[in-house]
Amino acid sequence: MTEALRDIHLELAQGTFVSLIGPSGCGKSTLLRIVGGLADVDRGEVTIGGLSPLEAQSRKQFGFVPQSPALFPWRTVLENMNLPFEVNVRGNSAAKLVEREDPVELLKSVGLGDFVNAYAKELSGGMQQRVGIARAFGSGAPILLMDEPFSALDEITREKISYQLLDIWESHQKTVLFVTHSLREAVLLSDKVVVMSARPGRVAAVIDIGLPRPRRAQIEDTDEFHQYVAEIRGYLRDEWKSS
Amino acid sequence: MVASKPGKRKEASVLNRVKSRVVSSPYLPPLAAFLALFLTWELAVRLFKIQPVTLPAPSSVFYEFATSIGFYLPHTGVTLFEALAGFFLGTAVAIVAGIFMAHSPLLERTLLPIAVLANVTPIIAIAPLFILWFGFDALPKILIAAIITFFPMLINSITGFRSIDGNHLEYMQSLHASKWEIFFKLRLPNSLPYLFSAARTCVSLSVMGAVVGEWSGSTEGLGNVIMMSSNYLQTERMFSAIFMLAIMGILLTNIVRFIERKVLFWHAMGGDRD
Fold first, then answer.
1. Has domain B58-102+111-266 been given CATH number 3.40.1190.20?
2. At CA B155, angle to CA B152 and CA B157, rounded to 5?
3. Each residue's pLDDT tens digit in chain B (274 positions)?
4. Among A50, B226, B235, B264, which has the minimal tally of Cβ within 10 Å of its Cβ?
5. How are strands ordered across the β-sheet holding A202-208?
6. What does the DSSP 8-state code read for residue A122?
7. Could A62 and B171 be called an inter-chain contact, meaning their C-beta atoms sit closer than 8 Å?
C-alpha cells in the first residue's frame, strides 16, 4: 500500500469556505473523504466539533456533493432534494434538530424553479449539479464537502455555476471544504486556499484570501484577484519543479 | 386542368399519409404477415387435399375452437394458474436469494453452482420425478414453472442489486444510510430494469414449464389436452390448444411489458437538455 497523505495539519473555522487545490494524485479527494467519514486513516486524528468523522456523519453534519451529481434517476428533483431527510432519521435525535429549508425556494435560487418535478435525465449536466448543490445546502448539514463538483462541466457552465455557488454560500455561511483543480474557482470562492503537493500528499501552503465579501463576478477583474491566482500558481510551480 | 392539380396533389398526399401510417404502425405489418401465413396454409390444405389428421385447415381449427370454447377455457385457466403461480414463486425465491447473494460473495460462490446445476439439467428430465413426488395436482407443475423462472431472475437480480453507480452509493454512505436503507432506496429501484428484462422472458417460460409438467402426468390443462388429442388423433383440438398457449404467451409478455413501461418510465426517458 502506498502512502496517500502525510503530516496534514489543518484547522477549519466554522462558517468558512476552504478550498483544497493541487496536482492530480495529491490526495485532496482522499482528505475530503477522510473528513466525511467515507475513508479511514491509518494514523492521526480528525475531529469535527469534537466528534469523529463517523459520529459527525451519523449526526447529519455533512452535505456531500460528489463529482457526478448522484441524483437518483427514479426520483424527481424534489424527491432527490428530500433524500437526506429520509435516510438515517429513525431514532436519530440529531436528525430532529436539523432545520429544514424550503427545497423549492432553494431550487429557485439556483434557477431551477421550473424543474421541481423533472427527472434527472431531463436536465443537463450543469442543471443536475445545481440540484446537487441545492440539496447539500438544503440538507440542514452545517458542513458541506464538495469533491470537484464542476469538473465534468464545460467552461461556460462552470463559470456560471461558480457564481451561483458564491451567492448561495454567502447567504448561508456554512463551512465548506471544496476540492478543485481550478485556481480561479479557489480564489473566487474561498476564505482560505490549501495548496497540496503530491506523493505523498502534503500541505505546501495555506493562503488566506482577503478579498472583500460579498464578492461579485467583477472581482475577477481586479489586480488583487490576479495576485492571489499568481501566488497559488507559484506554489504549484515549485511543486512541479521539485517533483 | 390547372384547378384539378391541387386536388390531385391532395389525393396523393392522403395516399402517402396512409402508406406511411401503415408502414410505421407497430401492428399492421406483422398482422399482414400472419394473415398471409394463414391464407397460404388454408389454400395449401385445400389445393393439395391434405388429410385433416395430418394438418387441418386454419378455418376448421378456428371452427373447432369457436364451437368448443367452453371446453378450452377451463383448461386454459388451469395452465394459466400453474404458470403464474410458478412464475411468482420462482421470482420471489430468486429475489430473496439474490438479496443475500448480492451482499455476500461467499454465499454466492457456495450456492450459485446448485442453481446452475438446476438450470442446466433439462427440465423435461426432472418433470416425471416431480409427478412421482407430488402427484397429479397443480403442485408439481407450479414447482417446474418456478424452477424455470428461478435462474434468470436470480442472475438478473444479483446483477441489478450490485451494479449501482459508485457515486450513488457514496452519496448514501455520506448520509450514514444503513444497509437496508441503501437496499430499499438504491439497490432495489436500480435492479428493476434487470428484473423486468428477466420477467419478460420468464413469464412465457413458465407457461412452457406448466405444459411440460402436464405432459408428465395430469388430468387437466392445455398440456393434457394436447397429449390426449394426440393419442386420439384429434389434430384440430391439438392445434386449438397450441394456439391458446401461443395467445397466452403473447398476452403475458405484453402485460409484463405494459407494467414495465408504467414502472420504469424513468429508465426509457432519453434526450439530454443543455
1. no
2. 100
3. 445 455 556 666 788 888 887 778 888 888 999 999 999 999 999 999 999 889 999 999 999 989 999 999 999 999 999 999 999 999 999 999 999 999 898 999 999 998 888 888 899 999 999 999 998 999 999 999 999 999 999 999 999 999 999 999 999 999 999 999 999 999 999 999 999 999 999 999 999 999 999 999 999 999 999 999 999 999 999 999 999 999 999 999 999 999 999 999 888 654 334 3
4. A50
5. A62-65, A143-147, A175-180, A17-21, A192-197, A202-208
6. G
7. no
Q: Which residue of B has its CA nearest to A54?
A: B176
Chain-chain contact of A87 with B177 (C-beta, under 8 angstroms)? yes
Question: A154 contacts in B (CB within 8 Å)?
Answer: none
Q: Sort residue A41 into left (φ over 0), alpha (ψ -120 to 50) or beta.
A: beta
How far apart are alpha carbons B64 and B244 in whole angstroms? 12
B106 in contact with A, Cβ within 8 Å: no
Put simply, the chain A residues between 24 and 63 with a CB less than 8 A from any chain B CB are: 36-38, 54, 57-58, 60, 62
Q: Which cell is B96 given?
A: 430473496
Q: Is B268 on the interface with A (CB under 8 A)?
A: no
Q: Is the ipTM of this complex over 0.85?
A: yes
Residue of chain B nearest A66, judged by CA positions: B167
Q: Give me the residue spans of the domains in chain B.
A: 58-102+111-266
Neighbouring CB atoms inside 10 A of A120's CB total: 20
Q: Which set of grid coordinates corresponds to residue B118?
A: 438446476
Going by C-alpha positions, the residue among B240, B239, B161, B148 that lies closest to residue B201 is B148
What's the number of CA atoms in the CB half-sphere (13 Å) around residue A54? 5
> Could you give the residue ranges of the DSSP H alpha helices within A100-222?
103-109, 125-138, 155-172, 183-189
Cβ-defined contact of B176 to A58 (cutoff 8 Å): yes
Q: Domain extents for chain A?
A: 17-242
Asked if the C-beta of B70 comes within 8 angstroms of chain A's C-beta atoms, the answer is no
pTM: 0.83
What architecture is domain A17-242? 3-Layer(aba) Sandwich (3.40)
Q: Which residues of chain B are within 8 Å of residue A73 when distances are taken between CB atoms?
A: 266-267
Chain B CB within 8 Å of residue A23 CB: no
Helices (DSSP H) in A36-142: which residue ranges? 53-58, 77-82, 93-97, 103-109, 125-138
Question: Nearest C-alpha of chain A: how many angstroms from B248?
Answer: 31
Cβ-defined contact of B273 to A67 (cutoff 8 Å)? no
Lookup result for grid cell 464578492: A215
